[in-house]
Amino acid sequence: MLELVIALFLVALNGVFALSELAIVSARRPRLKAMAEQGRSGANTALALMEDSGRFLSTVQIGITLVGILAGAFSGAALGDRLTQIFLDRGMPEGAAEPLGYGLVIGIITYLSIVIGELVPKQLALRNPEGIACAVAPLMRVLSKVAAPAVWLLNASTRLIFGLFGPASDSDTTVTEEEIKMLVVEAESAGVIEEEERRMISGVLRLGDRPVRGLMTPRTDVDWIDLADGEETIRTLLIETPHSRLPVTEGTSDNVIGVVQSRELLASLLTGQPLDVRAHLQQAPVIPDTLYALDALAVLRDSAVPVALVHDEYGHFEGIVTPADALEAIVGAFRSDSEAPEPDATRRDDGSWLLAGSMPVDEMAEILSVTLPENRSYHTVGGLVISEIQHLPNTGEHVNALGWRFEVVDLDGRRIDKVLAIPLNQRAGATVAPT
Ligand SMILES: Nc1ncnc2c1ncn2[C@@H]1O[C@H](COP(=O)(O)OP(=O)(O)OP(=O)(O)O)[C@@H](O)[C@H]1O
Fold this sequence. Notes:
By secondary structure, the chain is an alpha+beta fold. It has four domains: 2-171, no CATH class; 177-207; 212-331, CBS-domain (Roll); 345-426, Uridine Diphospho-n-acetylenolpyruvylglucosamine Reductase, domain 3 (2-Layer Sandwich), CATH 3.30.465. The chain has 15 helices and twelve strands. The strands form three sheets. The protein has a five-stranded antiparallel beta sheet with strand order 8-9-12-11-10, covered by helices on one side. Strands 1-7-6-5 form a four-stranded mixed beta sheet. A three-stranded mixed beta sheet has the order 2-3-4. Strand 6 and strand 7 (317-321) form a beta hairpin. The N and C termini lie far apart (79 Å). It binds adenosine-5'-triphosphate. Adenosine-5'-triphosphate is lined by residues 217, 221-223, 242-246, 320, 322, 324-325. InterPro entries: CBS_dom, CBS_dom_sf, CNNM, FAD-bd_PCMH-like_sf, FAD-bd_PCMH_sub2, Ion_transp-like_CBS, Transptr-assoc_dom, UPF0053_domain. Belongs to the UPF0053 family. Hemolysin C subfamily.
C-alpha cells in the first residue's frame, strides 16, 4: 500500500513540475508586470524566474528526472514485486506471474504519468498561465536555490555544448513589427498602456508602411494660386483660405513652382504695395506619391518650408503633405477653429460603419479587422471601392469585398465621399457583384 501511495505522490510531483514549467514559460510578461503592480503575490518572483529562465528550466529538468528515476527504481520495482507475489499466491506459475505483474505496473504507471503527470497539468497551465505562475513561483524559487550547484553544472555543460556549434544566429532574437503590434495589443488589454497610447504606437508603425499618398491633402482640396490669377481672385482666396501656405502654379496646374505664405501677401496688400506673388515664392520639396510617410517626414524635417508637393510618376501634381498630416495619421484628426472635423469612421448601432471615402485604407482595415491584399494599388476607402467595382460608381452602388459589403452612399462630384460598410455575415444571401 505504501508503495502505491509513494508512486502516486511521485506522479503528482511530476505534474507539479510540468505545470510550473509551462505556466512560467508561457506567461505573458506585460500581464505579470501589471499583476505585480497591483500587488499580486508571486508575480515578481515569477518575473524573476522568467528573467533567469536557464536556471529555472534546469531546476525543473532536475526535478522531473529525479522523479522519473525514483518512480522507476523504487516504487516500480517494489510494486512489481508485490503484484507478482499476489499472482503467485493465487497459484499462477512463476513464468507468467512475473511478466504479468511487472507489465501491469509499467502500464499503469506510464498511463498515470502521462495523464496526471503531464497532460492534465499542462492543459491547466495553458488555461491561466499568469495566475498559476504566481502561485507556483515561490516554491520554484526555493527549489532552484536548493538545486543551485547542480543547476550551475547543467548550465555550464549546456553552454559548453552550444559553444561548440558557434554563436546563436541573430534571427532568433530579432523582434518583428508584427510581434511589436501583438505585444502592444496585449499590453493594452493587460492595462499596462492606455488605448490612446496603443493607437498612437500603431499609427507610428504604420507610417513606415504607408505611402505619402495615403495621408496627403489631395489636389482637389488644396487652395493654390495660379500666377495668371487676377488680383481680385487672389484677394478672395486670401480672405477665405484657412491655410498659411499656398502652392503657386504657372502655366499648367501640374507646374507647381513653389509656395507662398498668405501672411506675407496680406502684409504687402495692407501696406499698399503691389501684389507680387513671385517675389514671395519659396522653394518647397517635391516628393513622389509612393514615398513612405516616414521618409516624407524626414524630407519635411530637413526642409526650410514645412510643405511637400506630391507628384505622381507622370509628373502630375497630386496634393500636399505637411507635418500636421503625419501627426494626424498618428493621433487622429484635429479640430480646427472654423469647423469640427468629421470623424473618418462612425459605428452604427446595427454593427455597420459609415466611412469617409478619403479614409486611409489601412486605418479602415484595423477597425474592420480585415487583412488587405499585399499588392493593392489603392490607399483610401474610395480607392478600394473603385478598385473592386472597376468603374467610377454612382450613389447606391455596392460591392462585396473582404467579408464586407461596401455601399457608396454619397458622392462629391465624381469623388466617393461616404461609404457604408456592412458585415456580410449580417446580410444573408449577399452577392459579390456590383449593382
Ligand atoms: N494650401 C492648402 N490647401 C489645402 N490644405 C492645406 C493647405 N496647406 C495646408 N493644408 C492642410 O491643412 C492641414 C493642416 O496643415 P498645417 O497645420 O501644416 O497648415 P495650415 O492649415 O496652414 O495651418 P497653420 O496656419 O497652423 O500652419 C494639413 O492636412 C495640410 O495638408
